[in-house]
Design a protein that fits this description.
It holds the Pfam family TsaD. By secondary structure, the protein is an alpha/beta fold. It contains nine helices and ten strands. β2 and β3 form a beta hairpin.
C-alpha cells in the first residue's frame, strides 16, 4: 500500500520577512521569501512598517508557494504557522491568515515555535544533507537569540546555556553600525573580514559561566576602541575597515567555539548543529568544519536558505507535529515571547 503524500503549507511572519513554503513529506517543493527593503533606511526593523508589509505580501507569497509546488490548495493536508516568538504585529498577520485558510479548507491548523523550527530545519530531506541523530547539541544563533540546546527527540529540548544579555546577531549588527555600515551589518562584517587580519586588533572576551554568553561588554569595548582611535585619526575606520571587521568577527566566533568545546566536554555529545540567521556566517561554518578534524565532532550545517527566517523550517516542524497529530485549536494566539522549550 503506497503512502499518501502529506502536503504541509508553512507560513512564517515573525519579523520582517514574509515566507510561505510547501513540503511533501520531508521534501521542500517551494520556499518563497519576500524581503522588506523598507527597514534599511531606519537602521533596523520598524514593527509597524513590518506588519503592514506582511499584510501586502502574504496572499501573493502563499499563492506563489502553492503554484511553485505544483499543487492546489485543496491538496494541502495541514497549515503550519509561526506562533512566536517575534514581533506581535507581524505574528498576528500570519496567525490570522493561517487560521482563516485552515478553516476555509477544513484542514488541521498547527502552531510552530519559531526557535524550535530553526533547529528542526536539519530534518528537511535534501540531497547530501546529513540529518543529526539524537541526542545532539544545537547552537542557535540569531539577531534575538544565542542558546546552546540539547535535543533528545524532535520535541524534547533543553537549554544548556544562553546569553545573559544581548544576542550574537545584535553584536554583529551593532558593531557594523558603530563602523558606519548599513543595516543589516552582520553579513557585511563577514564579507569585509575575508580581506582582513583577524589578529590585527584584540578585543576582550567576556568572563561568564562555562555555557553562558554575554555580548554587551564586547559591544561597549568595540565602541570605545573605535571612538578612541577615530579621535586620534579621523580616517582610522576607512584605513583599517577590513582588519577591524576581521578582528571583531574572530573574537565573536572564538566566544561561540569556546562554549561549544565546553558543552562537548560536559555532555560527551559530539554531534553539533548550528541554526538561526548567524549560522549563515562563513567563518563559523569554516570553524565547525575544522572542528570535525581537530576534535572528532560531527557537525551539521544547514543550507543557506534554511538559516535565515524561512517557511520551509515552519513546514518541516508542522509535518513532524502532523505525524503526532499535534494540532492547534482556532483559539490559539500569537505569542511575542516564547521559549524554545515551550
Amino acid at each position: 500500500m503506497s503512502q499518501k503524500p502529506i502536503y504541509i503549507l508553512g507560513i512564517e511572519s515573525s519579523c520582517d520577512d514574509t515566507s510561505a513554503a510547501v513540503i511533501c513529506n520531508r521534501k521542500v517543493l517551494s520556499n518563497i521569501v519576500a524581503n522588506q527593503e523598507v527597514h534599511a533606511k531606519y537602521g533596523g526593523v520598524v514593527p509597524e512598517l513590518a506588519s503592514r508589509a506582511h499584510q501586502q505580501n502574504i496572499v501573493p507569497v502563499v499563492q506563489q508557494a502553492i503554484e511553485q509546488a505544483g499543487i492546489t490548495k485543496e491538496d494541502l493536508s495541514a497549515i503550519a504557522f509561526t506562533k512566536g516568538p517575534g514581533l506581535m504585529g507581524s505574528l498576528l498577520v500570519g496567525t490570522s491568515f493561517a487560521k482563516s485558510l485552515a478553516l476555509g479548507l477544513d484542514i488541521p491548523l498547527i502552531d510552530v515555535n519559531h526557535m524550535q523550527a530553526h533547529i528542526l530545519a536539519h530534518f528537511i530531506e535534501e540531497e547530501d544533507a546529513k540529518i543529526p541523530p539524537f541526542p545532539f547539541v544545537c547552537l542557535t544563533i540569531s539577531g534575538g537569540h544565542t542558546q546552546i540546546v540539547k535535543i533528545t527527540n524532535h520535541f524534547e529540548m533543553e537549554v544548556l546555556g544562553e546569553t545573559i544579555d544581548d544576542a550574537v546577531g545584535e553584536a554583529f549588527d551593532k558593531s557594523a553600525k558603530i563602523l558606519g555600515l548599513p543595516y543589516p551589518g552582520g553579513p557585511l562584517i563577514d564579507k569585509y573580514a575575508k580581506q582582513g587580519n583577524p589578529k590585527a586588533f584584540k578585543f576582550t572576551k567576556p568572563r561568564v559561566g562555562d555555557l553562558e554568553f554575554s555580548f554587551s561588554g564586547l559591544k561597549t569595548g568595540i565602541l570605545y576602541f573605535i571612538q578612541k582611535n577615530v579621535k586620534e585619526n579621523p580616517d582610522f575606520i576607512k584605513e583599517n575597515l577590513y582588519d577591524i571587521c576581521a578582528s571583531i568577527q574572530h573574537t565573536i566566533i572564538e566566544i561561540l567555539m569556546d562554549k561549544l568545546k565546553n558543552v562537548v566536554k560536559q555532555t560527551g555529545i559530539k554531534h553539533i548543529a548550528i541554526a538561526g540567521g548567524v549560522s549563515a556566517n562563513s567563518e563559523i561554518r569554516k570553524r565547525l568544519q575544522q572542528a570535525e578534524k581537530h576534535w572528532g565532532w560531527t557537525t551539521y550545517i544547514p543550507k543557506f536558505e534554511y538559516t535565515t527566517d524561512n517557511a520551509a523550517m515552519i513546514a518541516i516542524t508542522g509535518y513532524l507535529k502532523y505525524l503526532n497529530k499535534t494540532y492547534s485549536d482556532v483559539s490559539v494566539t500569537a505569542q511575542a515571547r516564547l521559549k524554545v522549550t515551550e
